[in-house]
Amino acid sequence: MASSTLRVVVWGENVHEHINAKVAAVYPQGMHTVIAAGLRELLPTAEVSTATLQEAEHGLTEARLAETDVLTWWGHKAHGDVSDEVVARVQKRVLEGMGLIVLHSGHFSKIFKRLMGTTCSLTWREADEKERLWVCNPGHPIAQGLGPYFELPREEMYGEPFGVPPPEEQVFISWFEGGEVFRSGCCYTRGNGKIFYFRPGHETYPTYFDANVRRVLANAVEWARPPATRWVDCCPNAKNPLEKITPKG
Ligand code: ZN
Predict the structure, then answer these.
(1) What is the largest CA-CA distance in the chain?
(2) What is the pLDDT of residues 139-179, one digit of tens each?
(3) To the nearest 10°, the Cα dihedral for 221, 226, 228, 229?
(4) For residue 235, how far is its CA from the centre of ligand 1 (angstroms)?
(5) pLDDT tens digits, 74-91
(6) How far is the CA of 77 from the centre of ligand 1 (A)?
(7) Any idea which architecture 7-120+186-224 has in CATH?
(8) How far apart are the CA of 83 and the centre of ligand 1, in A?
(9) 248 CA from centroid of ligand 1 (Å)
């Protein structure tokens, strides 16, 4: 069941920040702390906490996930270090109704690939180029408070083809200075849970300080909150049919 207070866990791989001076300069306390600060700023009534790869069970114990309405996921360098047991646990919670926001290089995370069932591959380039994100549906909850488009002056390029199932709703399409385009805001449902993939957020750029990006993340977290009602999937054996079944000779 959905809780009245929105409980959000911001998960961060928290590796680049400790091995790359350029990343540490932008995010000295870690990317996850900046993502969480943006959510606290725009969703003052939400309970926002963080968890990282280095914590026991990556900070995502059964008990913690049971009390989580929406999980955000940033990972890149250490996808392979995420335990399969935790991935299975997160998948189970999504199917039960927990929202999941997958960020940037999280496209190759174990949890996103498992939930999509496809390669989640894409084209990429690091060249300090401008990204323009166009809003595909101004009426979508995740696009509220934005103009027709917004721009990030420097980002990594992600281009098509993006190896994901066709999104149920497309909220953003990105254009890059070098000419590529990309489906940069994709909505999915898996079981009772909502999933939003949002493209920007390369670790060497201050993307998570950007006001429009923060608005998108806050909107996405609200959108992905668990449904008020849900299907409890228990695969019942219907031993007693409503109608008499004629014995076949
Ligand atoms: Zn990146």
Answers:
(1) 78
(2) 999 999 999 999 999 999 999 999 999 999 999 999 999 99
(3) 150
(4) 40
(5) 999 999 999 999 999 999
(6) 10
(7) 3-Layer(aba) Sandwich (3.40)
(8) 22
(9) 62
